[in-house]
Amino acid sequence: ANGDEAKDEVVDRSRTMLREIMVVLQKEKEEISSEIKKAIKEDLIAGKCPGEGCKGDLIIRVARASKKRFLGCNAYPECRTTFPLPQKGLLLTTKDLCKHCQYPKVKIINKGRRPWDLCINPDCPGKDEKYRNYKNKKQSSGADNKSKLQSTS
After folding, report:
1. Would you say 119 and 105 are in contact if contact means Cβ atoms under 8 Å apart?
2. Does residue 52 surpass a pLDDT of 70?
3. How far apart are CA 99 and CA 24, in angstroms?
């Protein structure tokens, strides 16, 4: 840290540390790989399947033919519940449930935009509410702009 040690000593010490770490990783390779696989699978789970009598989980899947992303139940042959997902942006699963319909939410992160939470239910009453609020804001701001233009002329 103070420049007291020679470069060769630092390199030798670093190599020794790396060898020790590699020995441990090689011994635990199977366990580490199974833990990583398990964690990746858990990250893909968006929540419980809302299908009638289904006890499966909704997981992020990619369609083979179209390569489009969607949420599907992991009890697939018995339960055919699916939900569409946005095709662009990073998808992150959350543990949050929609306050309107109790369906799971996913977080979408697009470059250059603010991240947003999306209820996976296409028929969610909250989506209608958001759309109405957006439409009302747009109409009121449009009316304000027209009155400003008329007053300046």
Report:
1. yes
2. yes
3. 47
Q: Output the pLDDT for position 16.
A: 93
Helices and strands: H and E segment counts in the chain: 3, 7
Give the type of residue at 93.
T
22: containing domain: 7-135
Structure tokens at 148: 């400003």
Work out the average pLDDT over 30-49: 87
Percent of the chain with pLDDT over 90: 12
Is 48 within the bounds of a domain? yes
How many domains does the chain contain in total? Answer: 1
Query: DSSP character for 122?
Result: T
Q: Is residue 57 part of a domain?
A: yes
Residue 144 structure tokens: 């304000």
**24 falls within a domain:** yes
**Tokens matching residue 26:** 């090689």
User: Diameter of the chain by CA atoms?
Assistant: 80
The residues pairing with 58 across neighbouring beta strands, listed in sequence order, are: 47, 73
The string of pLDDT tens digits covering residues 109-123 is 988 889 888 888 888
Rounded to two decimals, what is the model's pTM? 0.62
Has residue 79 been placed in a domain? yes
In 3-state terms, what secondary structure has residue 13? helix
